[in-house]
Structure formats: structure tokens, C-alpha cells
Amino acid sequence: MKTNALFWAILCANVAMYLLDTVANRLNLRALKPELPREFEGIYDREEYRRFLDYTAVTAKFERVEATWDIATLLAFWLLGGYDWLDRAVRSLHLGFIATGLLYLGAIFLGRWLLGLPLEIYETFRIEERFGFNKTTPAVFIGDALKSLLLSVVLGGAVLAAVLATLQNGGPAAWLYAWAIAAAMLVALVYAAPALILPLFNKLTPLEDGELRRSIMACADRLRFPLAEISVMDSSRRSTKANAFFTGFGKTKRVVLYDTLVTNHSVDELVAVLAHEIGHFKLRHIVQHIAVAVLNIGIFLFLAQWMIHCPALYAAFGVSRPSIYTGLALFLVLYGPLSRILGIARGAQSRRHEFAADRFAARNTGLPHALAEALKKLSRNNLGNLSPHPLHVVLYHSHPPVLARVRALEGKV
Predict the structure, then answer these.
(1) Candidates 128, 277, 354, 373; catalytic one
(2) Pick from 114, 196, 111, 102: which is nearest to 153 by CA?
(3) Parallel/antiparallel/unpaired status of strands 254-258 and 229-233
(4) Which of 87, 354, 358, 373 is catalytic?
(5) pTM confidence score
(6) Residues 302, 292: Cα–Cα separation, whole Å
(7) Is 354 among the catalytic positions?
(8) What is the per-residue pLDDT for 298?
(9) 269: number of CA atoms within 13 Å, CB side?
(10) Of the ranges 18-32, 144-158, 260-274, which is most confident?
(11) How far apart are alpha carbons 317 and 326 in whole angstroms?
(12) 3-state secondary structure 16-57
């Protein structure tokens, strides 16, 4: 394969990203503290805290295995001429532009999915099982994987077909039309998909009448938050980890509580968690996150339309016949490091939003201690890292370290 300046730029950027991840991972392991923070006394016992330390170390090492596997398979496919070989193979079928493009991009997606599947199986049935998290059976795992793959083919295929057709026929403003299509699909998925897709994977049942339901509804009414339904999701079928989230829009908002969350927390703690989520809506964090995601799509498509007409891009990957679909696949490799830089800004914004939602919940419920206790229990039950290294936080964390949130709620920072 002949090399050019762009080849070396893309190669160096991806290798540098891998090395940065490696450094951050090792610093994160060194940042683990053998002493339990005073704020978590009574939440962890000695055995549980040692289990947390072991889990963090094991998962950190596994992350490096995954990252090494990802870059090794990418470089092997790239340097052995895989992008051009695949293009020749799909072109030989004479299926037409859209079908050929979908087959090409779909084959790359399927290949990466299949290559990552053994690692996902190991993580689920060895690591998560070892530490008592996994409740997924092989049958449920296979069913989830097939459903996810089918949804990706149907939804992803529809969006890709529209984007390919637009970039092929839209002229200089094609990226704007493609941006409108992709943004509309994103917004539709954010607001409608949870109600349509989530039931394919989990069973949702209405929260039975009782103190918890009445307290949640009273909190929502007090905060003038239209809540149409409270549901409990059977997350314990797959994992012991806990969470909660909202779905819907307008007057059809619905809160979904993991059954593991309901089991392990008091009414006050659950109300405080709910108020935190309401805070995201009231402070318009959800709209801001959607706006940033839409902007990122626009940046990607603007740069992609420019790069798919750049001969140096195809030369860097040894592709002999430039096309829009191969250009998109190649640009994804180039865009990876840039996406990570944009992700750092998104992460910083998200962490600020979490602190703001914590303050909202504490101020409007008068239950800062309950929210702090909920965060401590969630961290214990999920074996969350209590002392991540600052570089690791900057690069990957959408939420602030739990210790920082607890100290802020308790007025210690």
C-alpha cells in the first residue's frame, strides 16, 4: 500500500488516541485508594470495598484488552487492503448505488460487531458474573443481540439509505439536507423510541399504589412536572445494577425505575433521585444535549462531504475507486480522534449538568441527605469508582465522581 501525508496523519492520530487511553487507564488504576473515604463509612464494609477495588482493577484491564483488540483489527483490515477488497466484492454484485453502499457499510458494521461479540460474551458471563452483577441467561443474551442487530439493520439502514441518496444527488448543499434527515431521526428516537423499542427488551409494569407512588406523584405535582405514568422495569433479569430514567414528551412523560432501584432504596431516596431527573428537564439539560448531538451530526456531515471528494483520503486507505459510501467509511476512521476531542467538551457540559440537577433536587425537595445516601448506595451496588483519576474523568466521564457529588450535597465543597 502506498502512503501519503494523510495516511500518516490518520495512523498517528488513532495510535495517539490509543496511547492516551492506555495512560489514562493506568493512572486511573494507580489512583485507587485502599482506604475507604469517610463519607462511605457504613455504606461499604471491608469485604465490599475490597470487592470494589478488585472489580475496578479487573474492568480497567479488560478495557485495555478491548481497546487493543479494536485498534489491532482496524489496522489489520486497513493495512491489508480490506477497504478496497470489500469494495471490489460488493461492486461485483452489480446491485446499484444505494444497495451497494448499504451492503458495504453494513458489512463493515457487521464485521466489527462480530469481532467484538466474544469480548462482550466474556465480559457478561465471566467478569460481571464473577462479581455478582450478571443475571442474563444465554437465551436472553442471544435474543437481545439479535433484536439489537435487527433494529440496527432496519433503522440504521433507512437513515443510511437516505443520507447516501442525498449526498449523491443533493449537490453542494447535500450535507444540509442529510443533516436535516439525520437530525429528525435522532429527535424521533430520543422521544419516541423508548416507548416503542424498550418493551422489545424489557417488561414494564405500572408501579403499584402505595407510599412510593404517592410520594413520587406529589413531588412531580409540586414541581409542576407532568407525569403520566410510573413504571418498574424488570432489569434484574439481566443485571443487579440500578438506574432510573424518563421517557416521552409533553404531557406523556413517564418515569421508569429499575426494579433493583426500588428494592434497595428508601422512599425519600427515590423521590430525591426522581427530583434530580426532573431537574434535568426543568433546567433544559435534555434540550441542550439534543442540540449538541444535532450539531455534532452537522459537523460530521459537513466535513464528510468535503472529505469524500478528496483523492488523498482514498489513497491513504488504498481504495482504487472513490465513492460516497467508501468515503463515509474511511472518514469515520479519520473522524474518530476529532470525535473524542468533541466528546471531552460534551463530558464537561454533562458533568456541570449533573451538579446543577443535584442542587435542583436538594433545593426543591429539602432532601439533600437522601440524595447523597442514594448516590452512595448506587455507587456501592454498581461498584462505581470512588476516586477516578482527573484525566480519566476528563476523557470519559459524563457524571462527576460520586465523592465530589456527595461532598457538594453535604456542603463540604
Answers:
(1) 277
(2) 102
(3) parallel
(4) 358
(5) 0.87
(6) 15
(7) no
(8) 92
(9) 16
(10) 18-32
(11) 10
(12) HHHHHHHHHHHHHHHCCCCCCCHHHECCECHHHHHHHHHHHH
